[in-house]
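Journal club side-thread
Mid-discussion, someone asked how the predicted structure for our own chain would compare to the paper's figures. Pasting it here so we can look after the session.
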Amino acid sequence: MSLAAYGSSALAEHVRAVAVLLMVTLTLSSCPAAKAEPSGHFDFEVVAGERKTVTGKVRKYFLYVPRQRGGQPPPYPLVVLIHGFLRTAHHMSGNARYLASRGIVVFVPQMDQWLWGYKKRGRNMDEVIDHVAWLVPRAEAPGDPLYGLFDRRRLGILGHSSGGPIAIEAIIGLQERGIAVDSLMLQDGIVWPRTMARLHELKPLDLLSVRSEPATCNQHASVLSLLSQLSFPYRDMIVVGAKHCDPENPTNFGCMCICGRSHDRYREVFVRLLYVYFKDRLKAPAVVDSAPTVAETIHYLEDRGKVTLGKGWEVSASP
């Protein structure tokens, strides 16, 4: 073997070793999730299932289903939460519980954690499209356990980190199938070249980007380059002082080792913005803490220096 070939082989082995170490680190024990107070909220059921997707892979999924309470019957809104690179559905579980306890049906697919290369990335996008296309019609199928549970016209999607470009390309695929997505929240999203090349295919929808401070793990706010290429309005903001792991609920020590220490005070801002955004957009039921609108919440947070508003806020967020 030539020295050059040996060097290339050794480098490849080193990269693989680092990748394995990274994955082990990222999957270490989790920090506690921010919990929703049960009083005045919905009880909900967590349904864990698995299904064979269009790619031929059998994937786990988690469906969080609010139980009807008082005079607030279904249909409820539906929100899909998409995790990022080397993460799992578990890292969206606290956010899912927060929404479900406030009258929102939540679907969290377990995706391939390894997102290097467009083959794996594309497979995750295809699986998200397939999951949603399978789930949505069930609410309109008499006899199905999900019949009447949620309203397909009140559909929102969230993508954290690498889940952002997956969400965007999945929405493009859903729109091509005639499944409209009302709203998209990007939580500290990043950019992939292929997604940038497909932005012209994305039909207008409501889009809110909520970022952590620019750093290595969010490609130094690379999502701003994506937002600037959109053909429709959007809104963008920073959670002041937050790190890349803060949108996760729960996060873990591994993520913090790589992307910086995480704090509940930032996580609470992210999850609150997540809730009030989809609550207002998708007309979620009223609960004890649902009174402030997203505009009022943002005005409150901005006034206290917790968020900084970027583009799209030409009209004041104050009520």
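Post-session note: The domain at 40-309 is CATH 3.40.50.1820 (Rossmann fold).
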